[in-house]
Request: fold
Amino acid sequence: MNAGARLTGAATGVALAAAPLLRRARPDLARALAARRRSTAELAAWGRSREPGPLVWLHGASAGELLGAAPAIRGLRGPRSGLRGGARAQLVVTHGSPSGRAALAWLDPDHSGPPPLDRARDCDAALAAVRPGLLVFAKLDVWPGLVAAAGRAGVPAALINGTVRDGSRRSGALARRLFRASYARLDAVGAATPEDARRLEALGVRPEALAVTGDGAFDLVLERADRARADGSAASFGEALGVADGAAPRLVAGSTWPADERALLDAAAAVRRDGGPGWQLVIAPHEPTAAHVNALVALCAARGERAVRWSDAAAGPDASVIIFDEVGRLAELYAAGDAAYVGGGLGGTGLHNVLEPAAAGVPVVFGPRHDRADARALASAGGGLVSPAGALADTLTGLADPLRRGRHARAARAFVEAGTGAAARTADLLRPLWPS
Reply:
C-alpha cells in the first residue's frame, strides 16, 4: 500500500473513533463521515442488483468538478464508446460535497452518493460490488485508498480536466511524497493546460500517461448558455426581472459573499451620485439561506435601496436590487444580464466560476484575489475585468457605454469558444482503457 493510502486509512480510523466528539463540536463533519460510512453498504446493495454490462465510476469533489467532467463522460457512454455492439455504459457518480448533487441532471447516473471511506476494506468492498470497468477522477480530487484498491482489482484509473492551481496543498514537498504513488498509478491523465501538465508530472504522473486535453468546463458552459437562449429561459428571466430593454443596464452578480454584496451596493450608489446610470443589481448569493437573504434585504433597506426577493413576487420596474434565491439557474440568469460580476475574488473564499457568464456573452467583472488561471486568461483576452472593491464604481461607469460593453462581451464569448473541444479529446483519451 502506498504512503498516501496508509495515511488516509489511518486518518479514517481516527475520525471514526472521534465520531461522538465530532457530533458535538462539528456536526457537519460528523454527518459527512456518517454518509461516507453508509456509502459502502449502499454501493454494495446497488451493485448486487445492477444490470450486467460495462460501468464507469466518476468521482468529483463537488458540482463544479463533476459538471466539467459531464461532456466527456457523456461522450464516453455514447454511440462511440468503443464498447462491443455500441453498448451504453452504466455510470456511478460519487461526490465529496452535497453540492455535487447539482451536477447529476447533466450526468444521468445509475447510482450516486458520497464515496466510501478511503480505507482498504471499504474501497475493496465497494469496487468488488460495483465492478467498474473504469474509475475516473475529476480535476484533482484523487483518493489514494480508492486508487490503491483499483490497482488491486485491476481496474484502470484516470484523471480528467486535471488542474493544479498555484499554491495547491498537493504541491508541497510532504504532500508530493505522500501522494506520488497514487498519481503514478493513474493509467491516463488529461491536463487542462500545458502548465497543469508540468505540475501533474511533478506530483508523480507518468509522462507516458499524460496528455493535454483541455478543460471540459468550456464545452459545458457553452452548451448551457446556448440552451438558455434557445429554449427561451434567458428571455423569460429578462422579462420577469422587470426592467425594459434600454431603461437601465443590468448587472447579474453570481455566487456572492457579504464582502462582494457590500462592494456592489457601494459602487452602484457611487455611480448614481456621480450622475451615472442606475444599474439594476441582480444578486445571487453563493449561499442563499434565509438568514443570508434576510440580512441582505436589511442591508439594502438601510442604504435606501428597494430590494425584493425573486421568490416573493415579480421584481417590478422600481426594484433596484433583486435577490435571486433560487439555486442551479445561474447559466440562464447570466444570459439575461448586460454584464456579470462573479463573487469570491475580494478575498477569503476563492473566486467562483467565471466561464459561465463568459459563455453567456457578457463582460465578466471579478475581484483580484484569486488563483484561477481561467480568470487570468479571460482578463488577458479582454472578456474579464479585474476590479478591487474601491474601483468597482469606475468599472460600472465604463461598462455603461454599450459599445465598450459589446467589445468585452464579444471577447468573453470568443474566449470560451476557443477553449471548447476538450470533451471529445478527453473521451478519446479514456476509450482505450475500456476492457475489450
